[in-house]
Amino acid sequence: MVVTINRPERRNAFDAEAIAGIGRAFTDAEHDDGVRVVVITGAGDKAFCAGMDLRAFGQGSRPRPEGPGLEVFQTRCYPKPVIAAVNGAAIGGGFELAMASDMVIAAEHATFGMPEVKRGLVGAGCSTRLAARVPPAIAFEMGLTGDAIDAARAYELGLVNQVVPAADLMAHVAALADRIAANAPLALAVTKQLIFEEAGMHDASEWKAIRAKVVPVFASADAKEGAAAFAEKRSPVWQGR
Predict the structure, then answer these.
(1) Taking residues 192-213, what's their average pLDDT?
(2) Are 23 and 40 spatial neighbours (Cβ–Cβ below 8 Å)?
């Protein structure tokens, strides 16, 4: 199953409908024996996913879908293999979406980053997942500067399995999915569970505690200023509160 975030006009940023759609698709795939691998990608060629919609955030909107959302596969060991086909910028929550996937194939022009600090926010999922994947110095650099890296650098750091020409992205993803789907589904599920546990990945209760730490930041004056500055295309004026 290919799940596509279809908001190219907003760089495939999350809103409640998109989050709910992902949740429904992953739930359906989990219970469909005909689905052996799930692929997540974004519409267009500019962005895989820009994470939270900052303009909507600045207007007070918080994406709270009814029913299952991203937690369907981000806060537990989702039983089927997941491949992220990163067709452009994977930023903030989009970067986390890629890191939450089991494997990543990226187009050559793709970029990866966690720019939350530039907007007075905290990427709890990005920070946590990145720190588990790369040396601390790299996690600190990306987290504290908010600067993005290109696909080649992401490959060097082990965040990406393959970097391919944009025109060939989905063909490479399909080839990898076919190699995986040729194997026994029960064996795949248990192998994935073993890797999940051995890698020390967090369960739902741990993620709840992690995300609770950033709640005061999202309610801060700086968070509101960061969103306003983004919408108004100006430099933010921080107050530290």
Answers:
(1) 87
(2) no
CATH value at residue 128 = 3.90.226.10
pTM of the model as a whole: 0.91
Q: Is the pLDDT of residue 63 over 70?
A: no
Catalytic residue among 17, 66, 96, 156: 96
pLDDT of residue 56: 67
pLDDT digits (tens, 9 = 90+) for 170-192: 999 999 999 999 999 999 999 99
Question: How many CA atoms does the CB half-sphere of 169 hold within 13 Å?
Answer: 26
Catalytic residue flag (residue 116)? yes
Residue 225 designated active-site: no
Range of 148's domain? 2-167+184-232
| Helices 124-133, 136-145: inter-axial angle, 10-degree rounding | 150
Say what angle helices 124-133 and 93-100 make with each other, to 10 degrees.
40
Which residue in the list 17, 108, 116, 197 is annotated as catalytic? 116
